[in-house]
Amino acid sequence: MVPPRTGEFGRSAPDTASLGGVERQAVGVLAGGGAVGCLAKLEAAGLVGALPPEARRHPYRITTRGVEVLERELSDFAHIVKVGLGRIAATMA
């Protein structure tokens, strides 16, 4: 028997691609309505927009404002990582 492929966090690869898998991995980040509730909040904030449904899929696209917010958040995270790595390096010296 061949073991199933595993994705991030040791879950099976198909599971990590599903919204349920994302919700389980997020450990509360998407709490308060799950992925659907999270998407509704992002849409209400103007960060994503719904595209026309495709069969059973309900795709979304990131808006210009969403890209701006994401860039700012990622920049903040990059700064936090840089400071943290600098502190680790200082303790190892």
Q: Could you give the topology of this structure?
A:
Elements (H helix, E strand, L loop, with lengths): L12 H5 L1 H8 L7 H11 L3 E3 L9 E3 L1 H29 L1
Antiparallel strand pairs: 1-2
Brief summary:
The protein has 93 residues and is mostly helical.
Verbal overview:
- With 93 residues, this protein is mainly alpha-helical.
- It has a domain at 32-92.
- The chain is built from four helices and two strands; from the N terminus they run αααββα.
- It has helices spanning 13-17, 19-26, 34-44, 64-92; strands spanning 48-50, 60-62.
- The longest helix is centred in the last third of the chain and has 29 residues, at 64-92.
- The model is unreliable at 1-17 and 25-30 (pLDDT under 50).
Structural key phrases:
93 residues, mainly alpha, two-stranded antiparallel ribbon, 4 helices, 2 strands, 57% helix, disordered N terminus
Order of helices and strands: HHHEEH
Percentage of helical residues? Answer: 55-70%
Question: What is the mean predicted local confidence, pLDDT?
Answer: 77
What distance lies between the first and last C-alpha atoms, to the nearest angstrom?
Answer: 49 Å
Rg, Cα atoms, Å: 18 Å
General form? elongated
Secondary structure category: mainly alpha
Unreliable residue stretches: 1-17, 25-30
What is the number of helical segments per DSSP (H or I, 4+ residues)? 4
Largest sheet: 2 strands, antiparallel
Number of strands: 2
Strand order of the largest sheet: 1-2
Strand content: 5-15%
